[in-house]
User: What shape does this take?
Amino acid sequence: MSAELEPQSPWQTATIIRIEKRTPRVTSFWFRPSRPFTHLAGQHVDVRLTAPDGYQARRSYSIASAPEAGAGIELAIERLDDGEVSPFFHDVAEVGDEIELRGPLGGHFVWQVSDGGPVLLVGGGSGVVPLMAMVRHRTLRNSAVPVVLMLSARVWDEVIFRDELIALDDRLDGFDLVLTLTREPAKRPADHSRRIDVAMVIEAIERLPKPPALAYVCGSNAFVSAAAQALIDAGVPAGIIRTERYGV
Assistant: This one.
């Protein structure tokens, strides 16, 4: 992830104020920073853990909460068994614990309602997190900007923010959710059970009143490469596609 704003974003202490399990492998942690914190939907923070012997481990996490949400910032952290940071949060961290974080960081992969639309969001697995901040931002601003979110997960129980997203979809206010499961049949009639492909992208775009003005793709490196190419093959101009890649 970009760290272009690091010189203006010194490390600070943040306190865990809430913990909520999202899926079997993803848990949300809310942090209250010790200093004023203002971010844009799509930005991330760096988290730093320091061991008793002085060893430090760092990890970047996208912010899931909307800028207007208040009550701390939400990070949805996926457990990686071979990770240095995520096991600490899943196995050790408790409400009241203090950690170090730095941010907000990143200025490319952001969206504000003033940017307009229509907007096409495409997420794979935990890649939905910064996109969720954008969706929540739109909702809290009572925006009518048309947005379609295409979200791919392996199975139904691994769809992060699933119930909240379905509830937003049910509002019929210009936000549309397209879910696709790659390892089990779709649960909703309009959803899919395959990897995101050109036909699926074309179908999603048809839900918008006109072609997207902006597109955001986030997920693993392999997912982003495949999904961005599907968008291009579906006629989305490469110049409007912004990408964020997790891992390698």
